[in-house]
Amino acid sequence: MEVDTGASMSIVSEETFKAIWPNKEWHKTDIVLRTYTGAKVEILGETEVTVEYQRQKCKLRLIVIRGEGASLLGRDWLQKIRLDWNSFYVNNVTREHLSELLKAHSELFKEGLGLLKGTTAKIYVDSQVNPKFYKPRSVPYAMRNKVEAELDRLQSEGIITPIQFADWAAPMVPILKADKSSIRICGDYKVTVNKASNWINIQS
């Protein structure tokens, strides 16, 4: 089985199940599983199997899915079995295979900024709220060159665009990154547009 910490349940394909347990049956289950893309997994049922690992032995639930494919050891089993992580290894990826992947998906790996096309983002602001325009805050002298360099980079990549006039303006907040040599430029929007924006709670 392949250890997959992203899988909530341990699963086995119908093909593998019949090969290992030709006389064993599964029973109906109400469990619903989805892939990382949101697609629903076709579940045939569940069964209980005896799992032995080193000196450990226990009975655990196993989900049977239609078709063929890799068997996954998910988080439910990981909570019951103490694995020797030092004995695991990562499957080797050949340079030829890597080159094929990079070539097939060259658009994803090319240099520069990636853009989301075909979609327009809009911030909804309460029309009853008066715009707030804050003057720029002083930038520490030791950070000025880094801030100017980062602003130039953002402009050259089309992330920011100079304008002449604006109703809203938030103070800039430069943050020194962990490498101590580059800057992340943020905006203090809590004093301006945050209170006037209609933010959607994604969890709702």
Please outline the helices and strands.
Layout: E1 2-3, E2 11-13, H1 14-20, E3 43-53, E4 56-65, E5 72-73, H2 75-78, H3 95-104, H4 106-109, H5 144-156, E6 172-176, E7 183-187
Fraction of helical residues: 10-25%
Number of helices: 5
Task: Report the CATH topology name of the largest domain.
Answer: HIV Type 1 Reverse Transcriptase, Chain A, domain 1
CATH architect. name of the largest domain: Roll
Organism: Stichopus japonicus (Sea cucumber)
Pfam family, one: RVP
InterPro entries: DNA/RNA_pol_sf, Peptidase_A2_cat, Peptidase_aspartic_dom_sf, Retropepsins, Retrovirus_Pol_polyprotein
Keywords: Hydrolase
Plain-language structure description:
The chain is of the alpha/beta class. It folds into two domains: 2-87, Acid Proteases (Cathepsin D, subunit A, domain 1); 117-204, HIV Type 1 Reverse Transcriptase, Chain A, domain 1 (Roll), CATH 3.10.10. It is 19% helix and 19% strand. It contains five helices and seven strands. It has a three-stranded mixed β-sheet. The protein has a two-stranded parallel sheet with strand order 1-5. Strands 6-7 form a two-stranded antiparallel ribbon. It is elongated and about 75 Å long. The chain starts with a strand and ends in a 17-residue tail after the last strand. 7% of the residues are buried.
